[in-house]
Amino acid sequence: MALRNSEILLSIVIATLGRTHEIERLLKSLAAQKVNNFEIIVVDQNNDDRLGPILEVWSDKLPITRKRAESRGVCRARNLGATFASGEWLLFPDDDCWYPEDFVSQFDTLRAVHPSDFYSGRPVDLEGNTIMGTFEKAPTLVDRKTVWTTLIEWAIVIRRSSFEEVEGFAGEIGPGAGTRWGGYEVQDIALKLLKAGYQGYYVPTLVGHHPEDLSDRASPGSVAKIRAYSVGMGYVMRKHDYSLQFFLPHLVRPLMGVVVYTLSGKPGLAKRSREIFSGRWSGWNSVPAFKTHQK
């Protein structure tokens, strides 16, 4: 299935590794969209052909292009996929998220009534409850303050020309990057866009779905993951010249968690809070070394 370039509003870039049925669920949700003025670019980071049969089935229903990634890292894969995009706008789904049937049509209406350079939505469960963090409850401009409560990677839509001007996502951040900075790549690119003079708008009714992490928060894997994300937060804040005064509350909260969980007899969660604190502080202090390394 193919569309003419003039018909493509949105290029949907899916960076994927290790998924199969999750990709099928995502593609099923895209096939169910009320409008179909989009293309799909799958950036395959697998070493095998597990996606081949899946994409072959859906290629009759959706305009899918498959590209192989030579290196790992979700942000590098997103950037690669964007180079093949034809649409005016870019969307970057996680390979295990999915969307309600009115996501694309709602975005199409939104850009007409509220012009902006990028838009962000809210992650919700099937009942409409916010998941994966704290998000603003009302529409708002995205700025240096709200960037921390309005963004999720797979519910941000960016004008392609703006994305290209800021050189896309930072390849050193995010899952698979091979660095300590395991997350907050979406805040990083939003801050780059704002610095370049572009505007962002958050709409809580523009929603998508994602599996919730219901695993034991004190398990070694969960603690390691939250530490990597915490290092990313500290790094991004320092990289974009936030003041220590702004950053300090993000250190105080996990320290309070250490105290509360220790006193309440929950050593696993106390350790988790310590790792959040030390990760954020480590990320904050990693920026000068990284900048020196880059010179």
Automatic annotation (TrEMBL):
Gene3D superfamilies: Spore Coat Polysaccharide Biosynthesis Protein SpsA, Chain A (3.90.550.10). One of its GO terms (molecular function) is transferase activity. InterPro entries: Glyco_trans_2-like (IPR001173), Glycosyltransf_2 (IPR050834), Nucleotide-diphossugar_trans (IPR029044). It holds the Pfam family Glycos_transf_2. Keywords: Transferase. SUPFAM superfamilies: Nucleotide-diphospho-sugar transferases. The keyword Cell membrane does not apply. The keyword tRNA processing does not apply. Signal peptide: none annotated. It comes from the Bacteria. Residues 11-106 form the Glycosyltransferase 2-like domain. This is Glycosyltransferase involved in cell wall bisynthesis. It comes from Rhizobium miluonense.
